[in-house]
Amino acid sequence: MSAPLEHLVPSRAAKKARFDSDSIYPILDEALFCTISYSIDNQPFSIPTSFVRYEDKIYIHGSVGSHFIRQIATGIPVCITVMLVDALVVAKSAFSHSVNYRSVVIFSKAEIIEDYEQKLASFEWLTNKVVPDSWEYLRPVKPNEVKKTTALAFKLDESSAKARTGMPNDEEEDLELPIWSGLIPLSNKRLSPISDSLSENISLPAHLQHL
Amino acid sequence: MSAPLEHLVPSRAAKKARFDSDSIYPILDEALFCTISYSIDNQPFSIPTSFVRYEDKIYIHGSVGSHFIRQIATGIPVCITVMLVDALVVAKSAFSHSVNYRSVVIFSKAEIIEDYEQKLASFEWLTNKVVPDSWEYLRPVKPNEVKKTTALAFKLDESSAKARTGMPNDEEEDLELPIWSGLIPLSNKRLSPISDSLSENISLPAHLQHL
Predict the structure, then answer these.
(1) ipTM reported for the complex surpasses 0.90
(2) Which residues of chain A neighbour B177 with C-beta distances below 8 Å?
(3) Distance (Å, rounded) from C-alpha B86 to C-alpha B100?
(4) Which of B60, B7, B1 lies closest to B25, judged by CA?
(5) Which residue among A110, B150, B186, B191 is the one 20 to 30 A from A98 at the CA level?
(6) Cβ–Cβ of A103/B11 closer than 8 Å?
(7) How far apart are CA B99 and CA A129, in angstroms?
(8) What is the second-level CATH architecture of the domain A6-166?
(9) Residues of A in contact with B197 (CB under 8 A)
(10) Rg (Cα) of chain B, in Å, rounded?
(11) Minimal Cα distance from A148: which residue of B?
């Protein structure tokens, strides 16, 4: 990532912010959803959506008729946030409670992907992120599906990652209190697939069998 | 919730939007985190943060020194989004893939909670949301901790909930394809607490024993 701009440097806990792709990409590659914010006449709007990173950009898709997609496709400034929560940090005082998280904030502007093959590739990347190795197994995408979908790319030049890890940081005078402190880890696991009625006699494909 | 404003009515899938507290409150009460967006000179900024609903408002807390808190405390318009993801919806075509989710969008403006007792109450609500029944067990909050923290409330008058449930909706002509379709449920579970080194000889309090 390039040099930090001023609005990328948080006023609090600035030491936690990282601007390198080794910090940023793994978070983007693990998280399935981001929240994209934009503003019209200083009224902010934000929408959660799925996304995929490929090389130095992230990609999102939406219906060509979507109001949200049409607004951000104009290239207005957006702020994209991603957060993974790893654990609740339970301290001896409420004031020292915290969260172990990994987050990314991206300031960017949409580029419309017009090229058919590149658009198709971006569908493949997203599909294989959501369900690894599934693209080749699915019914191939039809040209009219590509036409009905807008693909937008966002450069990651102005991005930063923040994370908290580890145990609670209680106040010095609280350390000896006989109050339990530690972590409550959160799992964000995929559970066993559930077939719909159309698939009861179809064997689960190999790429879903590990779940 | 009051009558929907125009920006609360999504252009797509408008049928899914709900404006009643029976739809909105359970999502706000289950989700631990929201993303708050605001805008300065049409540059959007957004930040994930924990929150709690109490009656017809949500509350967030932050350091009095936080740039983000000071910006939104001025009462500028904010957009707050909350999303819970229940399952990945795996269709026979990539185009029909979807997500089972429950989301809330809130348009609001911060009110600063100045009253000491009300501020303290909002800490209690949030603490007991993050770790149910824990407030009374913790070291009591000190007056200077209350002073160092800004508590902001947001009315929910302009809020809407959306959700998707159920199995994939494949295209009519795809229904007989021998391709597996169904759901991959996602669990967002709390795992067994992990003691820090200060708590190895402290028994786990009752409110954490079910984890």
Answers:
(1) yes
(2) 139
(3) 5
(4) B1
(5) B186
(6) no
(7) 14
(8) Roll (2.30)
(9) 167
(10) 21
(11) B95
* Residues in chain B closer than 8 A to A163 (CB atoms): none
Q: What angle do CA B160, B163, B167 make, to 5 degrees?
A: 170
A101/B76 Cβ within 8 A:
no
pLDDT per residue as tens digits for the range B57-91: 999 999 999 999 999 999 999 999 999 999 999 99
Least Cα separation, residue B98 to chain A (angstroms):
10
Q: Can you give the pLDDT of all 211 residues of chain B as single tens digits?
A: 433 345 554 444 555 799 999 999 999 999 999 999 999 999 999 999 999 999 999 999 999 999 999 999 999 999 999 999 999 999 999 999 999 999 999 999 999 999 999 999 999 999 999 999 999 999 999 999 999 999 999 999 999 999 999 999 999 999 999 999 999 999 989 999 999 999 999 999 999 998 8
Matching residue, tokens 């797509």: B12
Q: Cβ A175–B183 below 8 Å, yes or no? A: no
Supply the pLDDT for residue A15. 53
Q: At residue A1, does pLDDT exceed 50? A: no
Contact A139 B174 (CB under 8 A): yes
- Look-up: residue for tokens 């409150």? B25
Q: What are phi and psi of B78, to 5 degrees?
A: -125, 155
State the nearest Cα–Cα gap between B15 and chain A, in angstroms: 14
For residue A3, name the pLDDT band (cuts at 50, 70, 90). very low
Tell me the residue ranges of DSSP E strands in B27-181.
33-40, 43-50, 52-54, 57-63, 77-90, 98-112, 149-155, 158-163
Chain A residue whose CA is closest to B147: A95
Nearest to A194 among B44, B48, B183 (CB): B183
Contact: B37, A37; criterion CB under 8 Å: yes
Look up tokens 């402190």; give the residue: A181
Contact A180 B170 (CB under 8 A): no
C-beta separation of A106 from A79 below 8 A: yes
CB atoms within 10 A of CB B115: 11
Pick from A32, A95, A189, A200 the residue to mutate for testing the B interface (most B CBs within 10 Å). Answer: A95
